[in-house]
Amino acid sequence: MLQISYIRQQTERVKERLGVKHFSDLSIVDSIISLDEQVRILKVESETLQAKLNATSKEIGILMGKGEKELAEQKRREVSLHKTAVQQLNEQLSVAEKKLQDELVKLPNLPHSSVPKGKTPEENVVVREAGNKPTLYAGAVPHWELIKKYDLINFETGAKITGSGFPLYKGKGAKLQRALIQYFLDYNTAAGYTEYLPPLMVNEASAFATGQLPDKEGQMYFATADNFYLIPTAEVPVTNIYRDEIVKEADLPIKMTAYTPCFRREAGSFGADVRGLNRVHQFDKVEIIQLVDPEKSYAVLEEMVQHV
To answer: 243 phi and psi, to 5 degrees?
Structure first.
């Protein structure tokens, strides 16, 4: 989530970068600044009045000690009025802070300065190419036909068991899937990543921390009875291992890897027209994650790309 201090200091840059991302409602930025100003004013008013209340409360004891009961009683009435006013201000402050938080979480992270503008694939910039692009021979068949030919995955039975987008691996297909998972985990741990086997469901706080909430709940499967979300990627539970914790710089980098099944509803996608293993609702993935010094993030990203 963007820091309010950065939004205030770099308002035009925030809007420019959000524009690159085609964020639809830039007025939210101005709303956030306005709400932050309101929160600041209410905090000052509340703290000032609380300080006055504390001072008046001390006066009561002094006046009582001097035997000035009538004046002390007057101060008690003032304290009572101050308490009511402070309570009202704090209630207003709580409402304003909630509104500010609700607006802040609507803003996505800003794209890096190297990210170009554009809406279509043709406007993408090629960063790198590797290997040789294969030239398919005449009569080459797509993977969904090979799946059937070698009896590796059965989509029809998966749909019968659960629904569309839930493949059933069998025979050599299941064995290959299991072998690839093991291979990647071994490869990652040999490179210094610590392996985790996390829960496959997370609570609302975890989904919020990695950005699935508040605007991507339509893409997640939700267990209503317990208010848990099935994970769309291992990144969600693994990243949350360190949620709300302060990590010592000396402990960085923290390198983690995990295998999990992943669940995505793909709501609103063109999945009905996609065949084979594209846009399925359950799939397996081995994830690598590093927690690093922000100044080293792009160098570490390159390191991770070379690793995989």
So the answer is: -65, 135
Q: Are the CB atoms for 18 and 108 separated by under 8 Å?
A: yes
CATH code, domain with 100: 1.10.287
- The distance of Cα 153 from the centroid of its chain, to the nearest Å, equals 33
Q: Is residue 115 part of a domain?
A: no
Tokens read off for 255 = 């390198």
Q: What is each CA distance from 4 to 105, 243, 285, in whole angstroms?
A: 11, 20, 35
d(CA 220, CA 66): 68
Are 232 and 263 contacting, i.e. CB atoms less than 8 angstroms apart?
A: yes
pTM, 2 dp: 0.79
- pLDDT grade for 58, boundaries at 50, 70 and 90: confident
Domain total in the chain: 2
Phi–psi pair at 222, nearest 5 degrees: -125, 125
What tokens does 247 get?
Answer: 């990590």
Say which residues have a Cβ less than 8 Å from residue 238's Cβ, sequence separation at least 6.
Answer: 196, 198, 256, 258, 287, 289
* CA–CA gap between residue 3 and residue 8 (Å, rounded): 9
- What angle do helix axes 27-65 and 11-20 make, rounded to 10 degrees? 140
Contact 14, 7 (CB under 8 A): yes
pLDDT tens for residues 65-116? 888 788 877 888 888 888 899 999 999 999 999 999 999 988 888 998 888 8
Provide the residue count of the chain. Answer: 308
Whose tokens are 């963007």? That residue is 2
Q: What residue numbers bound the domain in which 48 lies? A: 4-104
- Local confidence band at 270 (pLDDT 50, 70, 90 cut-offs): very low
Nearest alpha carbon to residue 104 among 200, 218, 7, 236: 7
